[in-house]
């Protein structure tokens, strides 16, 4: 069946725009656009039939349907021909049963969605495959697009650079100087992206990239382009699929530019509309206290909102004071009985480290979400019997400098409560055996996990 999707204004203006048109805002009112699907046509296949189709495709080898994004192609971007899809088998990341951490918190059913196990180490791949695929098709159709550009706090630039390198399309990335990790800086450079470091913050980079993309031959890849939202919405769909199509009670996600919150809500609403699920989870958005414009709005019941100047935070990827998707995210949170929580630098770092001691290896942004989880459990907003999913947005290996500084006690405003050290010994069995005995006795006696020093 020929499924249809198009761009349309999020504020209700009636004009429609083709997905292969270079446009980011409504021509009537200037509002952001979203991808709208012909739901009536999609309803011709019932919810049970969609489930069977998606399960038959999940992580199989038929291109491009083995991708957990493109396995739901009809719901994501039916306009792209299969031969123009640029996919690296994204999605399908593991849903980690955080049993040990859950028991510490008094929760029976705690899970961590490991989106950092995607190709470039973050959830950004889920959206970038859709955007780069659409641009690839536009180029094949004869449009003069000479490059794809983005502003980034690290992960978006890495994802754009990799997918563009795979497709043979020039990537242009703008990064805030000295505000991304070494690994995040190296990723676009290694993939051959035109990497421009600006002495500003993310919001300053965003201003520049929007000016650059006003040239018709430079395509904008930031999340104000809702093609990326279409791919990112499959995170929620995939969680449901991994739970055998059952809906969890609470999902906690870190938020910066807020495209991920928007995407999460959109995916769940689409599943409900098409008969795949019959209820919605509660969505929690977690922000760093130094970059918390959504949290401040939440305290007013979303009646007021003011952009802020985001202060430097260890959660660098969400150090954003003027999020592009603020209005869309607020709408989602209002629909999902949402909560917004914040976390201080101390809470972020210690939450990430505490999770690490139960088998995780958390990026600081996952630390933001875990810190919010701890607060919500403590005040009773999350109950013992709730099924809770924390979305881990990036791989901890991209933030080894953060890890090292934590364990060396060098993070500002952080008192490390789960600090670990290696033990230096001479290569003699007696010394090793004596030290091990001392350390293991100390751990057993104190009940303190992970104490590696003596």
Describe this structure in words.
The protein is an alpha/beta fold and 454 residues long. Among the domains are: 206 residues, 3-Layer(aba) Sandwich (Rossmann fold), CATH 3.40.50.1100; 32 residues, no CATH class. The protein contains 17 helices and 13 strands. The strands form three sheets. It has a six-stranded mixed beta sheet with strand order 4-5-13-10-11-12, sandwiched between helices. The chain has a four-stranded parallel beta sheet with strand order 8-7-6-9, sandwiched between helices. The chain has a three-stranded antiparallel beta sheet with strand order 2-1-3.
Average pLDDT rating:
94
Structural class assignment: alpha/beta
CATH topology of the domain at 95-121 and 229-407: Rossmann fold
In CATH terms, what is the architecture of the domain at 95-121 and 229-407?
3-Layer(aba) Sandwich
Secondary-structure element order, N to C: EEEHHHEHEHEHEHEHEHHEHEHHEHHEHH
Q: Strands across the major sheet, in which order?
A: 4-5-13-10-11-12
Largest sheet geometry: 6 strands, mixed
Uncertain regions spanning at least 5 consecutive residues: 450-454
> Percentage of helical residues?
25-40%
Global outline: globular
Radius of gyration: 22 Å
Count of runs of 4 or more consecutive helical residues:
17
Number of strands: 13
Please give the CATH class of the domain at 95-121 and 229-407: Alpha Beta
Strand content of the residues, in percent?
Answer: 5-15%
């Amino acid at each position: 069946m020929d499924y249809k999707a198009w761009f349309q204004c999020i504020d209700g203006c009636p004009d429609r725009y083709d997905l292969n048109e270079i446009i980011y805002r409504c021509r009537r009112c200037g509002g952001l656009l979203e991808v709208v699907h012909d739901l009536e046509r999609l309803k011709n296949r019932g919810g049970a039939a969609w489930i069977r189709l998606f399960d038959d495709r999940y992580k199989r080898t038929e291109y491009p349907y083995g991708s957990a994004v493109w396995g739901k192609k009809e719901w994501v971007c039916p306009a792209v021909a299969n031969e123009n899809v640029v996919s690296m088998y994204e999605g399908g990341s593991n849903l980690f049963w955080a049993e040990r951490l859950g028991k510490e918190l008094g929760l029976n059913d705690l899970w961590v969605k490991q989106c950092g196990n995607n190709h470039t180490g973050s959830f950004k791949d889920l959206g970038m495959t859709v955007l780069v695929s659409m641009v690839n098709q536009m180029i094949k159709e004869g449009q003069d697009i000479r490059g794809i550009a983005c502003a980034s706090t690290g992960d978006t630039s890495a994802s754009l650079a990799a997918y563009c390198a795979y497709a043979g399309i020039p990537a242009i990335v703008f990064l805030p100087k000295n505000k991304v990790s070494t690994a995040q800086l190296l990723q676009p450079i290694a993939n051959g992206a035109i990497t421009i470091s600006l002495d500003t913050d993310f919001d300053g980079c965003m201003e520049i990239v929007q000016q650059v993309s006003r040239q018709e031959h430079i395509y904008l890849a930031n999340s104000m382009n809702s093609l990326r939202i279409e791919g990112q919405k499959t995170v929620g769909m995939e969680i449901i699929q991994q739970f055998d199509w059952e809906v969890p009670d609470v999902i906690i996600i870190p938020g910066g530019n807020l495209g991920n919150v928007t995407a999460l809500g959109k995916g769940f609403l689409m599943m409900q509309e098409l008969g795949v699920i019959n209820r919605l989870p509660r969505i929690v958005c977690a922000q760093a206290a130094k970059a918390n414009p959504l949290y401040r709005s939440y305290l007013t019941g979303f009646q007021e909102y003011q952009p802020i100047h985001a202060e430097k935070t260890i959660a660098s990827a969400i150090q954003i004071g003027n999020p592009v998707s603020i209005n869309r995210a607020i709408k989602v949170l209002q629909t999902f009985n949402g909560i917004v929580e914040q976390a201080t630098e101390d809470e972020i770092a210690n939450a990430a480290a505490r999770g690490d001691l139960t088998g995780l290896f958390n990026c600081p942004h996952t630390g933001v979400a875990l810190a919010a989880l701890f607060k919500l459990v403590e005040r009773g907003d999350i109950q013992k019997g709730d099924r809770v999913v924390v979305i881990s947005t990036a791989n901890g290996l991209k933030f080894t400098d953060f890890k090292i500084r934590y364990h060396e006690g060098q993070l500002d405003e952080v008192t490390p409560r789960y600090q670990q050290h290696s033990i230096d010994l001479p290569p003699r069995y007696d010394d090793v055996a004596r030290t091990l005995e001392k350390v293991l006795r100390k751990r057993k006696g104190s009940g303190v996990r992970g104490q590696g020093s003596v």
